[in-house]
Specification:
The protein has 265 residues and is mainly alpha-helical. It is built from 12 helices and no strands.
């Protein structure tokens, strides 16, 4: 399930994201303060999505958590699409924004990537919000500002940095997505990764006995048995995804250093 951001009215959505003057949150009226606010609704929606995923998110579910009807929410948030925009940007506020650059940009980027990895696993629904159309909220820009500020220490020119930042996000996001989908697959099907893979691997050897001859390079990769997780409670596929994240990040950081050397910075 992929969710595309920014499906609401542009002016209304941006006003809510940035809490600009004239937005529903910014307006006040005489009398007692209302029992709801945009922030309360967004926080409740994040709690619902953390527990039940994007599939379980609805205005009704959020209203029930707040002890209100779905209709009561529309006074503050016009629709579910704009609620998701607000949730996404609000959740990003949890990420750190200050990294020590004393040990160098590479250490800082590694710490940033680790924090982003943990964030995706804590809020897996965030991975369902497409990157094709950004939310354009303040916290989304703050995350971008944070990593760009770190990478600016490399001295590379802006065009190159822009592409490096995009690649870095995809390395972390792609690896985390495998972990999230592996967990969802086990829950949705009732079959663990091990119970899914092992019977099929055995059948592949039986049905395609010439597999190694037909796909020699793939077979060579598989011949070196990948390491098993040290923690026996960690599922095999999650362990492999974590290793992909670590190796991918290392290769990318090595590539940045090589690019710096070619650029003479």
């Amino acid at each position: 399930m992929v969710v595309f951001a920014g499906q609401g009215d542009p002016r209304r959505s941006m006003a809510l994201l940035w809490r600009a003057s004239g937005s529903r949150e910014a307006r006040t009226a005489p009398g007692p303060k209302p029992g709801l606010s945009v922030d309360l609704i967004v926080d409740a929606a994040i709690t619902v999505a953390d527990a039940d995923g994007m599939a379980g998110l609805s205005m009704r579910a959020v209203g029930e958590r707040l002890g209100r009807t779905a209709m009561a929410l529309y006074t503050y948030v016009p629709n579910k699409s704009e609620l998701i925009d607000l949730m996404y940007d609000r959740a990003l506020a949890e990420l750190p924004t200050d990294y020590d650059l004393t040990p160098g940009w590479r250490t800082a980027v590694s710490c940033w990537a680790e924090d982003l990895w943990a964030f995706y696993l804590w809020h897996p629904w965030v991975l369902q919000v497409s990157q094709a159309r950004p939310v354009l909220g303040p916290n989304e820009f703050l995350v971008l500002e944070t990593v760009t500020r770190i990478l600016a220490e490399t001295g590379l020119e802006a065009t190159t940095l822009r592409r490096i930042v995009g690649t870095l996000f995809q390395v972390v996001r792609g690896s985390a997505l495998i972990v999230v989908e592996a967990r969802q697959a086990a829950t949705a099907t009732g079959v663990s990764d091990e119970d899914w893979w092992f019977p099929r691997s055995a059948l592949l050897e039986e049905i395609a006995p010439d597999f190694a001859e037909r796909f020699p390079t793939v077979s060579r990769l598989e011949s070196d048995a990948p390491s098993e997780p040290e923690d026996e409670t960690t599922p095999y596929l999650e362990h492999q995804a974590r290793q992909t994240f670590e190796v991918g990040l290392t290769v990318l950081l090595d590539g940045i250093e090589a690019t710096m050397a070619r650029a003479g910075v």
